[in-house]
Amino acid sequence: MKVVSMAILFLFALFAVSSALDMSIIGYDATHMTSGDSSSTNWRTDDEVNAMYESWLVKHGKTYNALGEKDRRFQIFKDNLKFIDEHNSGDHSYKVGLNKFADLTNEEYRKTYTGIKTIDAKKKVSKAKSDRYAASPADDLPESIDWRAKGAVSQVKDQGSCGSCWAFSTTGSVEGINQIVTGDLISISEQELVDCDTSYNEGCNGGLMDYAFQFIIKNGGIDTEEDYPYTGRDGKCDTYRKNAKVVSIDGYEDVPVNDESALKKAVSNQPVSVAIEAGGRDFQFYTSGVFTGKCGTALDHGVLAVGYGTQDGKDYWIVKNSWGAEWGESGYLKMERNIADKTGLCGIAMEPSYPIKTGQNPPNPGPSPPSPVTPETVCDEYSTCPEGTTCCCIYEYYGYCFAWGCCPLEGATCCEDHYSCCPHDYPICDVCRGTCSKSKNSPLETMAIKRILATPTKAKRSIA
Q1: Where are the alpha helices (DSSP H) in 102-164?
Q2: Domain named Cathepsin propeptide inhibitor: which ranges (predicted)?
Q3: In angstroms, what CA-CA distances link 268 with 142, 146, 262?
Q4: Are 106 and 293 in contact (CB under 8 A)?
Q5: Cα–Cα distances in Å, from 336 out to 92, 199, 298, 333, 460?
Q6: Maximal C-alpha separation, the chain
Q7: Among 321, 346, 385, 421, which one carries the catalytic annotation?
Q8: Average pLDDT, the chain
């Protein structure tokens, strides 16, 4: 009888264990990890991690074509998941989780999604020192402020795999002061800055907000996002849209450096452009809470301070990022405020700056006029494409092209489907998925572009 009882108890124990293991393994669930020991045999099973990986691939539309690339990315995903589990098992004021960066190494993430350049003293335009927001004992500032609630912050945007964070930080602060002064929240063009602000800034290769303010002032204004939309890649400056000066500013100033009290005073009056060090894994996978992670002062990312407050006794900044609404808290993060280091967490108090606006915008210029007639790209003696495009053969027979198409990009790669093309900086075509990759083994990709038919030369001449 004892043997039977022991057998029943043993079978019951096995059933309990198997039931405990039969849990959903599709989403991130920190309870599957054993008390912070991600290296132990009690960490997530390979089947569980693989199921999470497959679910993540579907959610983010990821596929890999290079031989062995999916497995290689799985190992990166697994390592990142271990990091996330270890963090979330500890006592922290913020959480990290699986986001669109989960298949990237930290080096790949830093190289692609940050883009602040250091200030070149030879290029920096001198400004009169301003004490507009210098901290004073007499200051009576609100305990908290959120410019989103006041209608001075546009929707969260996504810079994509282009190092244009500096442009998004700039437009955010200009949009803010424009709404405060005029009452109108107008989303303005990051692409105009990427394409046209090239004296000191370098488009997708990085830039600085102060240089961008200088460009807007010198140009007399900047166009709207709707009229000059974002493409996520370096392009040729559209001079007609550059001259559509919808929103203007009168100047810009720097907040007194290394002073969070001065930064608080500035943010209590308007959204402020700030530079931070955002290259750490904590920042890469941030999802919620007050961020207190490890970071230094090697400023590499431009963001926008849109408010401040206190949560559970911890002061924080409200920071708008440009990595889409799925990152962080719907595209935002809370960063710890009033730390012992005068530079602020991640150097947020080192280089804050803001635009100045005192009057109304220029008269509404209306829609941009059509672009002027420009020299063409010659495909052969019978066909041409517009300037700034690439000739791509649509129908080829025995090495001779009978019909040409035009890819609306300079130096583009013509894909083998004779239908699509890829930007020069994303030259690897995936005709099955309709995407373009930076390199054979790179997870960084953009959508392929459809060609348009070339213009027959003789037909044009007959019309003329």
Answers
A1: 106-113
A2: 53-109
A3: 7, 9, 10
A4: no
A5: 12, 35, 18, 10, 64
A6: 106
A7: 321
A8: 86
Annotation marks residue 92 as catalytic: no
Q: Return the number of other C-beta atoms located less than 10 Å from residue 305's C-beta.
A: 30
User: Which amino acid makes up residue 96?
Assistant: V
Residue 301 appears among annotated catalytic residues: yes
Cβ distance 109 to 284 under 8 Å?
yes
Q: Report the C-alpha gap between 259 and 239 in whole angstroms.
A: 40
Which candidate in 162, 301, 392, 415 is catalytic? 301
pLDDT per residue over 30-55, tens digit each? 544 544 454 445 789 999 999 999 99
Residues with Cβ < 8 Å from 82, sequence gap 6 or more?
A: 38, 39, 43
Identify whether the C-beta of residue 210 lies closer than 8 Å to the C-beta of residue 246: no
The residue whose two tokens read 């953009």 is: 446
Is 295 one of the catalytic residues?
A: no
The catalytically annotated residue of 162, 165, 196, 379 is: 165
Least confident interval from 5-14, 197-206, 433-442: 5-14
Backbone dihedral angles phi then psi of residue 213, each to the nearest 5 degrees: -60, -45
Say which residues have a Cβ less than 8 Å from residue 282's Cβ, sequence separation at least 6: 87, 94, 96, 291, 293, 294, 295
Quote the pTM value: 0.76
Q: How far apart are CA 161 and CA 239, in angstroms?
A: 25
Q: What digits encode the pLDDT tens for the residues 138-170?
A: 999 999 999 999 999 999 999 998 999 999 999
Q: Which of 11-15, 334-338, 403-407, 454-458 has the highest mean pLDDT?
A: 334-338
Q: For residue 242, what are its two tokens?
A: 């550059």
The backbone torsions φ and ψ at residue 49, rounded to the nearest 5 degrees and listed phi first, read -65, -40
Per DSSP, the chain holds a count of helices (H) and strands (E) of 11, 21
